[in-house]
Amino acid sequence: MNDKPPCTDARRQALKQLAGVAAAALGTPALAQRGNRNIVLGQSAAMSGPAAQLGIQFRHGALLAFDRANARGGVNGRSVELRSMDDGYEPAWCQANTQVLLNDDVLALFGYVGTPTSLAALPMATTAKTPFIAPFTGAQALREPFNRYAFHLRASYFDESARIVNQVTQVGMKRVAVFHQNDSYGQAGLAGVTRALKLLQLEPVATGTVERNSVEVAAAVAQLLPSRPEAIVQVSAYKSCAAFVRAARRAGYAGQFYNVSFVGTQALADELGPDARGVVVSQVMPYPFAPLIPLTNEFLGAANAAQPKVQANYSSIEGYVAGRVVLEGLRRAGAGLTREGLIAGLESIQNVDFGGFFVDFGPRKHVGSSFVDLTILDGSGRVRR
């Protein structure tokens, strides 16, 4: 794993140089041509900066699944290797990483974290005819129009927003504001909330933004609170969402906070501490803190054996489930493994039960789940259903 520092100004200035190095590397021998017998998957994700826990925990969860499979002989006698690179949740850095991974002839790109980074990488994967599997994002722009190289495991932000708005309006609240990141991720979440409200002949009473990888939320608080919202839906990463909750409460706001799953539930709870009490988060994975279904029983057994490195939380279980699904696709692809074979293997996973969590792909259906649940945080850092 790459251990680069957070994306500072100096680091941003180095992006062009890094991209040039990546492009120059196109002449080097590819990984597959060096005789590596492992099945190599490539990942670019935040491993540093304000969204780091999302990438770190997703990766740890995926490695639990891959290590478990490798200990049992791998897939058709070959071990699965996850090559992870840090992009600090910055699209330009992600593009440079993706070029390096594609140059290394990885079989597939896997577990990218975030909408802006995935939007930067997916066209590159498509041009290279490389599967792009289980990005940690629910953005509609990655799902429509249909792309045969993109496979989405999680429900969409439209699904999550509809569930949140349904909950808000069922308890009688109609004044809904949106605090969102000022990028493609935030716009995707805002579009989802606006769409869900419009179906009820409502609209957001106010919106406020924060820049990606920033916790400067004062302007957003000043924009939203005068509209007297009964609920605020947050569409950003955990550090900025936590900063907004604290600032809004200091300013006297006593309403309800809702978040979509990308926030990083446990990271948000840890960041807020006692201030987390009553904050609601939508989820697209099964509850990971108790063995309520066979899948979570299996996951918790693996996570507990790997402690303290692996925390059982929503980010790590998403990595674990994504790992399980790609392993099944690899198994179905057969011994003569190719990228096209992996696509066919994944498309054959049709309404398959992974231990209480169903995944349903198909030749023209590359969104495997629409599962959404709601959870609430308490003041002790716990996530409750």
What's the SSE blueprint?
Blueprint lengths: L8 H5 L1 H10 L14 E7 L6 H20 L8 E7 L4 H13 L4 E3 L4 H13 L4 E2 L16 E2 L5 H14 L5 E6 L2 H15 L7 E5 L7 H7 L6 E5 L2 H13 L5 E4 L5 H8 L7 E4 L10 H13 L7 H20 L5 H9 L4 E2 L4 E2 L13 E5 L5 E2 L1
Parallel strand pairs: 1-2, 1-3, 3-4, 4-5, 6-7, 6-8, 8-9, 9-10
Antiparallel strand pairs: 10-13, 11-12, 13-14
The fraction of residues assigned to DSSP E strands is: 5-15%
**Which fold name fills CATH's third level, the topology of the largest domain?**
Rossmann fold
Rg value: 20 Å
**Secondary-structure element string:** HHEHEHEHEEHEHEHEHEHEHHHEEEE
Kindly state the number of beta strands: 14
CATH class of the largest domain: Alpha Beta
Tell me the number of helical segments per DSSP (H or I, 4 or more residues long): 13
What is the overall shape?
Answer: globular
The parts where pLDDT drops under 50 for at least 5 residues are 1-34
How are the strands of the biggest sheet laid out side by side?
Answer: 7-6-8-9-10-13-14
Name the average pLDDT. 91
Main sheet overview:
7 strands, mixed
- Return the domain count: 2
- Specify the CATH architecture of the largest domain: 3-Layer(aba) Sandwich
Report the helical percentage.
40-55%
Structural class: alpha/beta
The span between the termini is 34 Å
Output the CATH homologous superfamily of the largest domain.
Response regulator
Protein described:
The protein is an alpha/beta fold and 385 residues long. The protein has 2 domains: 9-155 and 294-359, Response regulator (Rossmann fold); 157-283, Response regulator (Rossmann fold, 3-Layer(aba) Sandwich). It is 42% helix and 15% strand. The chain has helices spanning 9-13, 15-24, 52-71, 91-103, 115-127, 157-170, 184-198, 218-224, 238-250, 265-272, 294-306, 314-333, 339-347; strands spanning 39-45, 80-86, 108-110, 132-133, 150-151, 176-181, 206-210, 231-235, 256-259, 280-283, 352-353, 358-359, 373-377, 383-384. The chain has a 7-stranded mixed sheet, with helices on both faces. A 5-stranded parallel sheet has the order 2-1-3-4-5, with helices on both faces. Helix 2 packs parallel to helix 4 (91-103) and helix 9 crosses helix 10 (265-272). The longest helix has 20 residues, at 52-71. It starts with 8 loop residues before the first helix and ends with a strand.
